[in-house]
Amino acid sequence: MKDPTDFVDTKNTLSTTLVIASGNVHKIRECKEILKTIFSIDILTLRDFPAYTPPEETGSSFEENASIKAVHAAEALGALVIADDSGLVVPALNGKPGVFSARYAGVDATDRENRKKLLLDMEDLKEEDRFAYYQCCIALASPKGLEKCVEGKCEGKLLRQEKGGEGFGYDPLFVKHDYNKTFAELTESIKNRISHRRKALDKILPFLEDRLSK
Description:
Elements: H1 5-10, E1 14-20, H2 25-35, E2 42-45, H3 62-77, E3 79-89, H4 111-121, E4 131-142, E5 145-158, E6 174-176, H5 188-194, H6 196-212
Parallel strand pairs: 1-2, 1-3
Antiparallel strand pairs: 3-4, 4-5, 5-6
């Protein structure tokens, strides 16, 4: 295969390639683990395109941000692209962290700093107000534009202290309904079967299969 950076200049359509428009290693691994069991195609990510600069995430919703990222990457790379935007929503905090989940404690905040701020913000909440859900929107786009955008949700509650060393983001605080372990205590294979990202991927798969069969 050509050097991936060549595609940025030529904008050749990568008909047998799917690009995951993300540089986040955790999201990439989760998506690849799911997709590789279904499709026997090349799956690239933004880490394969060092010359590419992603757009600013200016949307006010997960759907808007996912669409912005997918359309921009598909046009720039001349490829079929999926992009995800996801985060944690706490209704008792008026939907925060929401689209600012990755930068809740500041633009360059670490996962631990974001969790610390969330715990402080929820410190005085009653147990029934600690309900939260993860939301993931995945957009599918080609060089011609946006083709589909879907969402998946995973509902649960937030603990008052972190548990587990797996996962990322707010996983050490989040316990899905009907489970007694945080996402950070579950194995990767179990989380990949029940996560918000898995639910969104399941919804986008029929459209992706149809697109790849053309």
